[in-house]
Amino acid sequence: MDFFSFFRKPPSKDVAKDRLKLVLIHDRANCSTKILEMMKNDIIQVIAKYMEIDKEELDIQISQTPSGDNNESVPTLYANIPIKNMRKVNS
Amino acid sequence: MGEVIVITSGKGGVGKTTNSANIGTGLALAGKKVVLIDADIGLRNLDVVMGLENRIVYDLVDVVEGNCRYKQALIKDKKYPNLCLLPAAQTKDKDAVSPEQMQKLCETLKEKFDYVVIDCPAGIEQGFKNAIAGADRAIVVTTPEVSAVRDADRIIGLLEANELNNPMLILNRLRLDMVKRGDMMTIDDVKEILAIDILGVVPDDEAIVISTNKGEPAITNLNSRAGQAFNNIVHRIMGEDIPIIDFDEENKFISKLKKMFRIGA
Predict the structure, then answer these.
(1) For chain B, which residues lie within 8 Å of any Cβ of chain A, measuring from their own Cβ?
(2) Is this model's pTM higher than 0.95 or not?
(3) Do residues A17 and B149 make contact, with C-beta atoms less than 8 angstroms apart?
(4) A47 vs A34, A50, A54, A62, B14, CA distance in Å?
(5) Residue B67 CB: number of other CB atoms within 10 A?
(6) Cβ distance B203 to B197 under 8 Å?
(7) Contact across the interface for A13 and B193, Cβ inside 8 Å
(8) Which of B151, B180, B189 to mutate to probe the A interface, most A CBs <10 Å?
(9) Helices B206-214 and B225-237 meet at what angle, rounded to 10?
(10) Residue B23: which residues within 8 A CB-CB, separation 6 or more?
(11) Helix B99-112 vs helix B126-133: crossing angle, to nearest 10
């Protein structure tokens, strides 16, 4: 990456590519909202063993994050899980 | 025993019919016996693109309903004796034919022809299911646009679900000037997104509009860039190993040349 690329807008084809990658993840995961909901419940079950979490405020979605050396966007699973309290776990 | 190739895309208007016409004509020019089937019942267009619209007597629906023998419905192209067209019905709808009937028809035609090329309608409903029913392999046409690539991905999934594995991609209407500016996805971009083998790249070319106006497929004019691109595609279909022209590299080469001259001047 050269110094000036910071000021330049990304070429529109890269925008197209990033948007496509994200939309195809949803398309390919046949009924993605249902799958996300199932995954959310599984995650709650696992985490609830160790900490008390705010199930109402829990947010899970597929989004994009810049990563790698060339700052390319990659799809990521984003989860925001507010912790209310830690549980005491007998190890 | 011939091969049945379906040409499909999901999205409308990306060039299925133009690609079908050119691939069919190109295979015939290469000496193969070819029949083109227009599976777009109700919205037929392959006949006009081929310039055969005035010679239709019977159509695909007549053949599957048994109103005529298939030979009576085939229109022989006068310019290319190896090439026939089976036109779609214009006044019926897609339900007039079933996938089983199409499969049977393909089996029959495969015995008489080297290639059966099916022009699939847009969409993923009945017409699509009919068109792919008898196919041995599939070609997916797309343009370097978000909507067309998205639909191509969906179609690739549906083809594989119907056991038409390893479909190949034609990237149509590529504009080199826009690729150069970074405003159009390249072959590599589309390949990366769809994870599919590329059969060919067809540049956006006025020659296509002109040839469609005349009802003569562009492949008959090898001086046009699109005609040349279709010719390469046809020879790849026949199993020849012809490298895909990487337009990016070509651009880099040209810009290097330009730079050299600027330095020289």
Answers:
(1) 144-146, 149-150, 153-154, 157, 179, 181-186, 189, 192-193
(2) no
(3) no
(4) 20, 6, 11, 19, 48
(5) 12
(6) no
(7) no
(8) B189
(9) 80
(10) B5, B7, B117, B139, B230, B233, B234, B237
(11) 30
Predicted local distance difference test score (pLDDT) of residue A56 = 85
- Give the burial class of B186: count Cβ atoms within 10 A of its Cβ; 0-12 exposed, 13-18 middle, 19 or more buried: buried
Domain ranges of chain B: 3-264
Q: Which residue from A minimizes the CA distance to B184? A: A13
Q: How far is B196 from chain A (nearest CA, A)?
A: 14
| pLDDT tens figures, A75-90 | 778 888 898 888 877 6
The SS3 of residue B119 is strand
As a CATH number, domain B3-264 is 3.40.50.300
Q: Do A20 and B154 touch (CB under 8 A)?
A: no
Q: What is the pLDDT of residues B181-225, one digit of tens each?
A: 999 999 999 999 999 999 999 999 999 999 999 999 999 999 999
Burial-class residue B24 by CB neighbours within 10 Å (0-12, 13-18, 19+): buried
Contacts of B244 (CB under 8 A, 6+ apart): B187, B198, B200, B201, B232
B251, exposed or middle or buried, with CB in 10 Å at 0-12, 13-18, 19+?
Answer: middle
Residues contacting residue B148 through CB under 8 Å, at least 6 positions apart: B9, B10, B11, B14, B142
Nearby residues of B104 by Cβ (< 8 Å), 6 or more positions away: B134
For tokens 């699939």, the residue is B120
Where along chain A do its domains lie? 12-86
pLDDT tens for each residue of B131-147: 999 999 999 999 999 99
Type of residue numbered B44: R
Q: What is the pLDDT of residue B12?
A: 96
Cα three-residue angle B31-B34-B39, rounded to 5 degrees = 155
